[in-house]
Specification:
The complex is a heterotrimer of chains A (346), B (336) and C (346). By secondary structure, chain A is an alpha/beta fold. Chain A contains eleven helices and ten strands. At the A-C interface, helix 2, helix 3 and helix 5 of A face helix 1, helix 9 and helix 10 of C.
Chain lengths: 346, 336, 346
């Protein structure tokens, strides 16, 4: 791996639940993010997958400082971002930008495209001199594949895919090093998703970007990511290179998740073993003791209720060097192939 | 055929002109068959379903031509009160968003029971007993205790089960499911689709599954109808279409989705945008985005060609099924 | 007393462009948004605001399309709405005669001939005379000035005061917000007429200011509630988060991103309230605590004429009629503006 640009360790975000109006009393907490560690290297793409409510969006918000972590560190080039404020924070913010999920609500309908993409320069005037901004904005439009003459149009004159390109252009304006993309294509039509994914791929090499790519669609995450982390109930349960996670998953949750993804291949229906999980995800206010997945896990035993499994290479694979030897937070980790290898000729 | 839609046209009058949402759609479903209607936003797949159910907002919507023949009767010629008897009892619909489709101030038991009170004239007590039965059947744990709970007390997956129970209540012959699992997480999605497929087998119902997800389609459908700009561009048995699409749009869709089982190179992307329904391109609606487009595509609307001499999908030996494609060059597309 | 009906805050999306309504902000996976868009584009709002799927889909692609915004769309709607045209003509006429009453009258409203008291219509005096022998026509025309002045100034005061307080409370939230909400509750509990009787009976000034001040005092909570709600709605939009993640200051967020998108409901409610303030002025004057002679006002005239209703009904009917038409015109205007600004109704 290349040098780590971003190091996240022990990241927690708890939202207190209070009772009473005058004398607030904390009665519990929503543990949205509950101890997340990962690193992101320069030029790398780390995909984070998980179901709704697993805390992946909260992680994204903490990275761009929209939420303050309850505990834990986010180190950018070795400096703990969570302790910064004022000018120093602003400088770091320049380098970590976000692309939002919904291209319909993430652009101010009252501003022209030029104003939207140019706003970063108004907030960080040192990046581009005033006279140069319009040209910069037009360059950015060109870079994301939009006609630079659209600079005076309003967002609603564009389709969803084009709006997402505008959102990406805004994210690029300050020449950041890291882009946090929270479900950037899930609001788009299938045929348009591919266009935006390809664009993000191209921009990554062009601008030497690191991506933190958050999504619930496992296929898209595999396509774009170098490494993938699987989140469940506020924690990463398994992390590794894309082939390690998809072809050699060792955590039962990852296996269930992968086996549930419908494959666009009718023949896979017969060839595939499905793990259908029972029950629902427990509430983040009341996280099960020990392993948080144990309430839905078919392998759960006594030990799972008592010991919290650490996110590390499981003992069984510690001496192995194969693709199964990657961090997985399970006491009974074992390899299981759940995605049938492709047979379709193409 | 249980249901046959013939040459249906629906348009919407809007402030900016007439949006032609459905332009001559024909498809059919047999009892016990699952037809997947696949399309992107604005393809007219939901509008067609609403026209079948008779829940299209009119105005601004207008059915300008076509027939919807259900069990031998053309639904479009029925009077509203006759139509209402068909709805719910003979055909039912499952919506995407279970939370907004259920009434938040009535308990789920009341809502399920209401079907029996209204259509079957059962007493409230009997209706409640039937509601519990239904909840059991869609495998909601502890149905007897939960029958008095309100929709918001259930999780997304459980709510979608309740929607399914409601649709199944009167054992209709046809179910239309409009993106039934889109709002759900993958693991829950699998549970709900399994349940739906199982109930369909048990009651030998026709199922129209409306979706944009090529994965879900491959998992459950028998036949697929692909819609684009208010028309069916290709219709075929599921195995055939994934094996060898006979329309460039279908082909583009299949190529543009990333795969779970391999890390691809650059994705194929269909260029351009779906058409403006107020200004559908002349000729084939797909021609501005089509890599194979020729002059004829810009002038002549392609008819639905019968697709014959198809290479059979491996492992299937049924006789060549009826397969159509609305592409002048389906042969080239198929053998490309 | 007709309390201005708050239009049950049905402008949750008032801050957005019309077509944003097409994408229900489900917050769920984007795929859901996508599908919702599909459903709604064609069924819910085929009224077709510009960006809804069919029409606006490739608007960005078609060059030469005129710029459209919520406001220009609303204006287009309004121009075609007969209710708006009638209301606007009536209001323009009212404004005209309050500025230049002498252009359609030829007497002083204060010059009266007791000898002609209660006489009916006659040449040169189309509306007849009131109990004091003053010309009813002249007094009705001059009364418009007071009514319009009171209505407009009270509305401006209420709108400014209410939206600033409500907007800030909505934006910053927390303890100030709770405090403000309780204060508005207290003000809502004050019966308007009773409050007016008590408060204004101690005032001896002859000007319109005490009445206006009283209206602002009792009217601001209504606007502040609306403003607070719409600021909270606007604040949740992703574009506000996007600007915040760029490091934008609070004042930039408020002025640039929130206010333009939150102001529509306030305008609507204020327009409707204007009509009711005019009626309230008449009510208070009728009760003897509002304006006092020699100020000319419809309320005063209605009050003065009521004892002679059997002998000289015209002296009561003309000012009452003028009042009714004026109030109706403002309420109709407010209704039309609300419909035009509410994307959901399209």
């Amino acid at each position: 791996m290349t040098e780590p640009l971003l190091e996240v360790s022990g990241l927690h975000k708890h939202y207190p639940l209070t009772q009473g109006i005058v004398f607030r009393k904390q009665v519990g907490a929503v543990r949205a993010v509950d101890g997340v560690d990962f690193t992101l290297g320069r030029g790398e793409t780390l995909g984070i997958v998980g179901e709704s409510g697993c805390g992946k969006s909260t992680v994204a918000k903490m990275l761009v400082n929209l939420e303050r972590p309850t505990r834990g560190q986010i180190r950018y080039k070795g400096e703990d971002v969570t302790r910064l404020s004022g000018r120093a924070l602003k400088a770091v913010r320049r380098n970590i930008q976000m692309v939002f999920q919904d291209p319909y609500t993430s652009l101010n309908p009252r501003m022209t495209v030029g104003d939207i993409i140019g706003e970063p320069y108004e907030i960080h005037p040192e990046v581009a001199p005033k006279g140069d901004r319009r040209r910069q904005v037009q360059d950015l439009l060109d870079v994301v594949g939009l006609n630079p003459e659209y600079i005076n149009r309003y967002p609603h004159q564009f389709s969803g895919g084009q709006r997402q390109r505008i959102g990406i252009a805004r994210g690029l304006a300050l020449r950041p090093e890291v882009i946090v993309a929270d479900e950037p294509v899930s609001a788009l039509d299938v045929s348009v998703q591919a266009q935006v994914i390809n664009l993000m791929d191209r921009l990554q090499s062009e601008f030497d970007l690191s991506y933190l790519f958050i999504a619930h669609d496992l296929s898209i995450v595999r396509h774009i990511s170098d490494r993938v982390g699987v989140m469940y109930l506020g924690r990463i349960v398994e992390i590794g290179r894309d082939a390690e996670i998809y072809d050699h998953p060792t955590h039962p949750y990852t296996q269930a998740l992968l086996s549930a993804v419908p494959l666009p291949d009718p023949q896979a229906r017969e060839r595939r073993e499905r793990i259908i999980l029972t029950g629902d995800v427990p509430s983040p206010t009341n996280i099960p003791s020990g392993c948080r997945f144990r309430t839905r896990c078919w392998k759960a035993q006594e030990r799972c209720a008592q010991e919290v499994p650490a996110l590390a290479v499981p003992a069984a694979f510690r001496l192995a060097t194969g693709p199964a030897a990657h961090p997985s937070a399970c006491h009974f980790a074992e390899e299981k192939q759940v995605v049938p290898p492709e047979e379709r000729e193409s | 055929m249980l249901l046959e839609v013939r040459d249906l046209h629906v348009e919407f009058r809007t402030r900016d002109g007439i949006a032609r949402a459905v332009n001559g759609v024909s498809y059919g479903v047999d009892a016990g068959e699952t037809l997947a209607v696949l399309g992107e936003s604005g393809s007219g797949k939901s509008v067609t379903a609403q026209a079948i159910m008779g829940i299209l907002d009119m105005p601004p919507g207008r059915i300008t031509a076509g027939e919807i023949v259900f069990r031998g009767r053309d639904l479009l010629t029925l009077k509203e009160d006759e139509r209402r008897k068909v709805r719910g009892a003979e055909m039912a619909m499952i919506f995407q968003d279970a939370l907004s489709s259920l009434n938040p101030v009535l308990s789920v038991g009341d809502q399920l029971g209401e079907m029996f009170v209204v259509h079957r004239g059962l007493s409230r007590k009997d209706a409640r007993a039937r509601a519990v039965e239904l909840m059991d059947r869609v495998r909601i744990p502890a149905a007897r205790e939960r029958v008095r709970d309100y929709p918001h007390q259930f999780s997304g997956g459980m709510r979608q089960r309740i929607m399914i129970a409601m649709a199944m209540a009167l054992e209709p012959a046809l179910i239309i499911a409009d993106e039934p699992t889109t709002a759900l997480d993958v693991t829950v999605q699998a549970q709900v689709m399994d349940l739906l497929a199982e109930l369909q087998r048990e009651y030998h119902m026709g199922l129209i599954l409306i979706t944009h997800d090529l994965g879900v389609v491959a998992d459950v459908a028998d036949r697929i109808a692909v819609m684009y700009a208010g028309r069916i561009v290709e219709s075929a048995p599921v195995h055939d279409i994934y094996k060898a699409p006979a329309h460039p749009y279908t082909r583009g869709l299949l190529d543009s989705i990333p795969r779970l089982d391999q890390k691809g190179q650059e994705l194929y992307a269909i260029k351009g945008l779906p058409p403006n329904l107020m200004d559908i391109p002349p000729g084939c609606a797909f021609n501005p985005r089509c890599p194979m487009a020729q002059d004829v595509c810009r002038t002549d609307v392609p008819p639905l060609y019968e697709v014959t001499d198809v290479p059979r999908a491996a492992g299937t030996d049924e006789p060549p099924a009826d397969r159509t494609s609305a592409c002048h060059f389906w042969r080239e597309c198929l053998h490309d | 007393m007709p309390e201005p009906t708050p239009p049950e805050h049905h402008l949750p999306g008032a801050g957005r462009t019309p077509e944003d309504g097409a994408i229900a902000d489900t917050g769920m996976g984007g795929a859901m948004d996508l599908a919702t868009a599909e459903g709604e584009t064609l069924e819910g709002k085929p009224g077709g605001p510009p960006g809804t799927g069919p029409s606006g889909r490739d608007a960005g692609g078609a060059s030469g399309e005129r710029a459209r915004s919520l406001w220009s769309d609303a204006w287009r709607d309004l121009r075609r709405n007969p209710v708006f045209i009638i209301a606007a003509l009536v209001i323009l006429f009212l404004v005209f005669i309050s500025l230049w009453p002498s252009s359609i009258t030829w007497m002083s409203p204060l010059k009266c001939q007791l000898s002609k008291a209660q006489e009916g219509s006659q040449p040169g005096h189309p509306f007849g005379f009131d109990g004091q022998g003053c010309d009813v026509y002249t007094r009705v025309v001059y009364g418009a000035r007071t009514s319009v002045t009171v209505g407009v100034l009270a509305t401006l005061g209420v709108a400014l005061f209410g939206s600033v307080l409500g907007g800030l409370a909505g934006f910053f939230g927390g303890a100030w917000d709770s405090l403000l909400s309780r204060i508005t509750d207290v003000f809502f509990a004050i019966p308007v007429v009773l409050g007016g009787l008590v408060l204004l009976s101690v005032v001896t000034s002859n000007t319109v200011w005490p009445v206006i001040g009283f209206m602002v005092l009792l009217g601001w909570p209504q606007i502040s509630r609306i403003a607070r709600g719409s600021v909270i709605t606007a604040k949740q939009n992703d574009y506000v988060q996007a600007a915040r993640s760029l490091g934008a200051s609070n004042s930039r967020l408020l002025l640039r991103h929130i206010t333009p998108n939150a102001v529509a409901p306030v305008i609507v409610v204020a327009t409707i309230a204007l009509g009711t303030y005019i009626a309230l002025e008449a009510t208070l004057s009728y009760l003897g605590v509002g304006l006092k002679p020699p100020t000319v006002s419809w309320g005063i005239d209605i009050s003065a004429a009521s004892p002679y209703i059997r002998n000289a009904p015209h002296a009561l009917l003309w000012p009452s009629g003028a009042l009714a038409v004026t109030v109706l015109a403002f309420i109709m205007l407010g209704d039309a503006v609300r419909d035009a600004l509410d994307p959901k109704l399209r």
